[in-house]
Amino acid sequence: MIPIRDTIPRRHFPFAVFTLIAINVYVFIRELALPQGSTEEFIYLFGLVPARFTHAAWAARVGFPPHDYWPFLTTMFLHGGWLHIIGNMWVLWIFGDNVEDRMGPFRFLAFYLICGLAAGVTHVLTNPASTVPAVGASGAIAGVMAAYLVLYPHARILAMFPILFYPVFFYVPSFIYLGFWILMQFFSGTLAIATQREVSGIAWWAHVGGFAAGILTFSLFLRPRETPAAPTGLA
Question: Is residue 227 predicted with pLDDT exceeding 60?
Fold first, then answer.
């Protein structure tokens, strides 16, 4: 299911979301402009390679700088292709504006980065021997989706499901859409561990880690006057 839009109108212009999208697009364009043959080196250096932090001897042998933890941050702003960045930025735009409404731009930015860092740590812990660089904002965006789920559980998501070449549009409650999404990440991640390989090359457990961080921490970033006694929409 591809989300098209939600039914919750924004109250303020989403400055933080817009800025994050602009930075991601700028970095992606810079990736595309790299000289031929340099892109892979760039992705390995600034993407998240788990073995770089768990196998020091291997990391030193292949030339990774020692004691460099910046990739936990920089990996959030790298993408592997047009579909990758368009999909991530589209989902951030749909769900991020309403969460930023409840947090404000600076709190939202801090929340986003914390969820992204949690996603990166989770990926390293669940794939400690991987020498494949993980890139993308999806772990941080998973945290935003988690906050949206709790804050707006009864919002409706207009989704599109392609049947052959015919797109079918329908509305689905956000708790069903996002609940189904995180279950898919969890089961796919479990399958990846069971088969000892990265299924489809996607860092499923990074998504789970970012989502869990979002659930656990979102209330700390709400504007003080908006901190609910019970999750909004459940009363």
Answer: no
State how far the alpha carbon of 179 is from the alpha carbons of 6, 56, 95, 155, 201, in Å.
15, 38, 14, 13, 22
pTM above 0.85, yes or no: yes
Distance, in Å, from the CA atom of 6 to the CA atom of 148, rounded to the nearest integer, reads 11
What does the alpha-carbon distance between residue 68 and residue 55 come to, in Å, rounded to a whole number? 14
Phi-psi region of 225 (alpha: psi -120 to 50; beta: other; left: phi over 0): alpha
Nearest to 129 by CA among 205, 51, 201, 198: 51
In angstroms, rounded to a whole number, what is the distance separating the alpha carbons of residues 129 and 138?
21
Tell me how far CA of residue 9 lies from CA of 2, 5, 99, 112, 156, in angstroms.
19, 10, 11, 21, 11
Residue 86 CA to residue 91 CA, distance in Å, equals 9
Residue with tokens 């941080």: 140
Which one is predicted more confidently, 224 or 29? 29
- The helix-helix angle for 82-103 and 15-33 (nearest 10°) equals 160
Model confidence pLDDT, tens digit, residues 35-87: 877 888 899 999 999 999 998 889 888 888 888 899 999 999 999 889 999 99
Q: What is the pLDDT of residue 193?
A: 61
Q: How far apart are CA 149 and CA 3, in angstroms?
A: 14
Q: What is the CA radius of gyration of the chain?
A: 18
Whole-angstrom Cα distance, residue 111 to residue 29? 26
